[in-house]
Specification:
Layout (H helix, E strand, L loop, with lengths): L2 E7 L3 H11 L4 E8 L6 H14 L7 E3 L14 H7 L20 H12 L3 E5 L4 H9 L1 H6 L1 E5 L15 H5 L1 H9 L3 E5 L1 H4 L3 E2 L1 H10 L2 H20 L6 E2 L1 H10 L4 E5 L2 E3 L9 E3 L11 E7 L1 H16 L6
Parallel strand pairs: 1-2, 1-4, 2-3, 4-5, 5-6, 6-12
Antiparallel strand pairs: 7-8, 9-12, 10-11
Helix pairs in contact: 1-11, 1-12, 1-13, 4-5, 5-8, 10-11
Length: 319
């Protein structure tokens, strides 16, 4: 029996790969996407989601517009580095046919209502800032008790990627991430500790090109753009990190990673603002509401990634 899933995305090349991974996984039934800001404006992300869903044969999945900016700010502008890594349109300059569907309003309410309806049969996979999730937790206390959440964000044992201590998704809205962690919600953190070990190369994307389908070629084009950006920003890696897809992978199969039970917080003041770290006030609590991934089975994940993306690239998606 498949588990229902909502993806909270700021789409984004690796968000697009995460979406493909989810749609290519028979263990998951994607019931909706909630759009957020980060790699792109929320409206751009929603448009990307709708176009990708059409391309992947899942045009019946609804997309909901979420919060347009951080909880403590009045607006949002895409960072120059985000545009460099993901392209001006968020998907590496790949031009997709615009969807005939429109995004719906009310991402936060959709999250709350879905958790209320499905409970433990639902997993929320968040690969952007935590603003939508924190807003849902603040609006409905029952959301905190019932939601099961896997996030791509944070860095516990390695440096951040926007500062020595802060990872990009958390850094977009540290207050929201801190509120979510400290709310007591069930959160699994898939951070840079593990995602930077899962690397994709042009040898992988060449396999998609051989398939020759529109979905395969679009995935190859946007991922090659992403790999090229990594050659500038992190030449020591030798590929691009599969940040967001790994969060989906763990939602499907938690045994892909080693999880450390730890009550987390985010620094919201001072020079370390945006740092994810253990919460000293809950250090000795018997109940650990969150977990952080500290190791990953790279070979098994990459095998699963290529198999599931291949399902989508070949057009073998059913929704």
């Amino acid at each position: 029996m498949s588990k229902k899933a909502i993806l909270d995305l700021d789409t984004g090349i690796d968000d697009a790969l995460a979406l493909a991974y989810a749609l290519g996984s028979p263990e998951l039934e994607v019931i909706g996407i909630t759009a957020t800001y980060g790699n792109v404006l929320v409206e751009t992300g929603a448009a990307n989601d709708l176009a990708l869903l059409d391309l992947f044969g899942a045009g019946d999945v609804p997309v909901y517009l979420g919060e347009p900016h951080a909880s403590t700010r009045s607006g949002f502008e895409v960072l120059e580095i985000s545009a460099f890594i993901h392209g001006e349109n968020g998907i590496g300059g790949v031009e997709l046919a615009p969807s005939g569907s429109e995004p719906r309003q009310g991402a936060v309410d959709f999250l709350i209502e879905s958790v209320r309806e499905h409970g433990d049969d639902l997993v929320i996979i968040a690969t952007g800032p935590m603003t939508n999730l924190a807003a849902a937790a603040a609006k409905d206390p029952d959301f905190v008790d019932a939601a099961r959440i896997v996030i791509m964000g944070g860095a516990l044992t390695v440096p951040g990627n926007v500062s020595p201590w802060a990872e990009a998704n958390i850094n977009q809205d540290p207050d929201a991430a801190n509120d979510l962690f400290r709310s007591g919600a069930d959160v699994t953190m898939i951070g840079l500790d593990v995602t930077l070990q899962t690397l994709l190369t042009r040898e992988h994307t060449a396999q998609w090109r051989e398939l020759g389908t529109p979905a395969a070629l679009a995935l190859a084009d946007m991922t090659d753009y992403y790999i090229k950006a990594y050659e500038t920003t992190a030449p020591h890696l030798g590929g691009c990190g599969l940040h967001d897809p790994l969060a989906v992978g763990v939602a499907v199969d938690p045994s892909l990673v080693t999880l450390l039970p730890i009550n987390l917080k985010v620094d919201v003041e001072g020079p370390t603002r945006g740092r994810t770290i253990g919460d000293e006030e809950r250090l000795n609590d018997a109940h650990r509401t969150s977990r952080a991934a500290v190791a990953v089975d790279v070979d098994r994940f990459l095998t699963e990634f290529m198999r599931r993306i291949g399902n989508v690239a070949r057009g073998a998606v059913t929704t």
